[in-house]
Amino acid sequence: MAAPWTQWDHVTKIDPDKPLHDGDSYAGIADTGTDALIIGGTTNVTESSVQSILDALSSTEIPIFVEPTYHPMQSHTEGLSGYLLPVVLNAGNTMWLTGAHHEWIRSSDLEWDYVHPEAYIVLNPTSTVATYTQADCNLDIDDVVAYAELAEQILGQQIVYLEYSGMLGDQTIVAAARDALSTAQLFYGGGIHDYDSAYEMAEVADTVVVGDVLHDAGIEAVEETVRGAKDASHES
Ligand code: 1GP
User: Which domains are assigned to the chain?
Assistant: First the structure.
């Protein structure tokens, strides 16, 4: 069976550390047409904050994954499709390459069917994730392409994630990374906030991820980004 993410054009990431926009509810996010939800953030994410969001999403039918930047005690929670585990290829702090993962595996009885790695390439030097992982974001297009190939061909990664968190990335770099991959899925995230920005990035990435727009502008704005991503995917 094909991995679920091969069907995703648009994903919405919910940060447990940020409130929803006024009047929005977690349950309403799935009605935007987004293909999947990821619960995850860089700082202040705890098992209990993730659990309250899972509870609020209990009637949601689209896949829900958690990016565990905290240390989950359970390897599988009810209502969860699985964990997406970031491995930050350009991290300066090896905690984000293998350190945190090693610790989690040592201390938990993981159900591997539910755990899938994502090879992150962090590209916005001013983002919290770049600071936190001490990422080397001083990369040109050939560096990014080489990381994408390394992820797929050397590390056998099925998901490569270009993470521009907080800023809209460079479409040429995203397209070049996509071209360098054979079967891995290219996720793009960062700065998508309306129809046009979603369309632009979905033209070149396999899956676009929106985060801040949910918390800053709300569900209706997320809906616009879904339309942009779906239109671009159907045309390509
Ligand atoms: C963050 O890639 C996601 O991990 C989305 O980025 O918050 O900038 O939309 P934004």
Answer: 4-235 (3.20.20.390)
